Amino acid sequence: MPALLELEEAYRTIHRTGEFRQELAWYLKDYVGRPTPLYFARHLSAELGGPQIYIKREDLAHTGAHKINNTLGQGLLARRMGKTRLIAETGAGQHGVATATVAALLGLSCDIYMGTEDIRRQRLNVIRMNLLGAKVVPVESGSRTLKDAMNEAIRDWVTNVRHTHYVLGSVGGPHPYPMIVRDFQAVIGREARAQVRRRTGKLPRCLVACVGGGSNAMGLFHAFRDEAVRFVGVEAAGHGVHTHHHSATLVAGTVGVLHGAFSYLLQDPWGNIQEAHSLAPGLDYPGVGPEHAWFKDQGRAEYVAVTDTEALEGFNLLSRTEGILPALESAHAIAYLKRLAPEYTADDIVIVNLSGRGDKDVDAVAEAMEVSGDAH
Amino acid sequence: MTRIDRVFKQLKAKGEKALIPFITAGDPDLATTRVLALEMAARGADILELGVPFSDPLADGPTIQAASLRAMQGGVHLEDVLNLAGELRSQTQIPLILMGYYNPILQYGLERTATEAAAKGVDGFIIPDLPPEEAGPWRVAAAKAKIATIFLAAPTSGAERIRTLGRLTKGFLYYVSVTGITGARTELPPDLVESLKEVRSLVKCPLAVGFGISTPEQVAGLAPYVDGVVVGSAIVQRVARLQGPALIQEVGDFIAALKAPLRGK
Predict the structure, then answer these.
(1) Eight-state DSSP code of residue B55
(2) How far apart are CA A306 and CA A264, in angstroms?
(3) Whole-angstrom distance, CA of residue A220 vs CA of residue A214
(4) pLDDT tens digit string along B211-244?
(5) For chain A, which has fewer Cβ within 10 Å, the N-terminal or C-terminal residue?
(6) CB B55 to CB A3 under 8 A?
(7) Is A89 a catalytic residue?
(8) Pick the catalytic residue: B49, B116, B123, B227?
(9) CA-to-CA distance for A89 and A155, rounded, in angstroms?
(10) What is the ipTM of this complex?
């Protein structure tokens, strides 16, 4: 708790200063390559036959996903707090790579906690982290995925808090993390808003993004929160939300406390956390950011889920129509466009967040195309 | 006066310090926990701490994580631990404290947990992932049922927070010896005694120290500066290694050895 209070205090005093903002803006532009394009997906739009679909190209940010927006912000914050070591949890490996990247950039030491199941599924990202000078610490406990990596990262943090900053990767976990991560990811929506208005003179009707912990979705939604824009968060239904093999926390979960956040969870009646499943390792988390829970309860956003099979179809669809391999996580959002498109006409604009690129997933996709075991 | 308060008062009068052993309830099964608890009470334990199994025990090291998993594999949940407490209460007057994470308590119901726990003879709860800032609803439920909520303080807490924790906690303040998680350690932080002296000067309530303490020698070194010592993982390691009468004997002897330096002169 004192560590969280220290972080909150530091964040409040540091992040608004002109010096910090200039530093962050400079790195975002020259290092990350922002602003990322807002791309009009002409062929995808034609294929689905509904709205004009625009794709926010977070896959083109340095390291290949939106995760760098947050790790850069937290890395710069940690350096100003005098911390010399960064740690992080990772599922898909994208957040781990983004943290390792920033650690290398800022000259900080770095340990990344990753479940052994995810290490097996995301070998490429493990190699990338090693090349960046980070140590990947295998986590054998529990389901050996993201939740367990997060447990270990928290245990490390409370042990080494004096010189270590924990770079939490999503809008979950204890306050102030959901706020900090949202603020650093909100650049996605701010850019998208300016870009779509400049390009078309109007606002989109709908925003679509995948939701695991929920950082890319919150990043896109936040700048539009006071506008009449529909928000759709797409969770991973895995083998189906009525099976025990999914990660659809908001669609099928119940309220509880995990990792210091009061939100929706996948849990048994006794309050033990259940294992989440998704073909997309970045969605494989049994909790979700508390602000999404609030959006759900307020009716501000709607949350839906698509299966592993649908996500693979989404992966194919975008690859084939636009020549873009999406991350399996983002492929969930793409997949849902199929269901959403008939509700709109060609006058309407829908923005989908392409949170990451799919290179890391090609092995898993190739394997899954052969053996897809969905229960429908 | 609660059972916990009474124990500290009686020990103080005798110049003794409290031994507070911890085991995970249901590790490896509830019957063993019951026998172990009674043996510990008979061999020198002054207060018993029973862990409630949980899937994600964030504050615990590998030893207690594994114990929690073994108990969960046996299907042990909060309700079973409450029933176990009731059985123990019919056989001993030793104070019983449950150490459990917040979500299982929240799902069972805060009022229901507190009320049933009180009815079974439980005296207090330690909820390591519930800081005082978030503890309002639980404290209300616990206070109504006359259940003590015991707060943890850590080396990073700072003087102001420790004072607040000392005011809010019931029974005693649990000072965490190390920054980090539970688990037997061969060496404790070199500045621990200094820290304990400082905490002592900041709070009026009884003070117990725990995390990492695993030998009678360590207990002897800390005894002068506290009112109680918590030993967990070192006992749980024995539960993992032994079984049957050999386990009961070994744990009983270990408790006696840990208590010896706390008996004073």
Answers:
(1) S
(2) 18
(3) 10
(4) 999 999 999 999 999 999 999 999 999 999 999 9
(5) C
(6) no
(7) yes
(8) B49
(9) 11
(10) 0.93
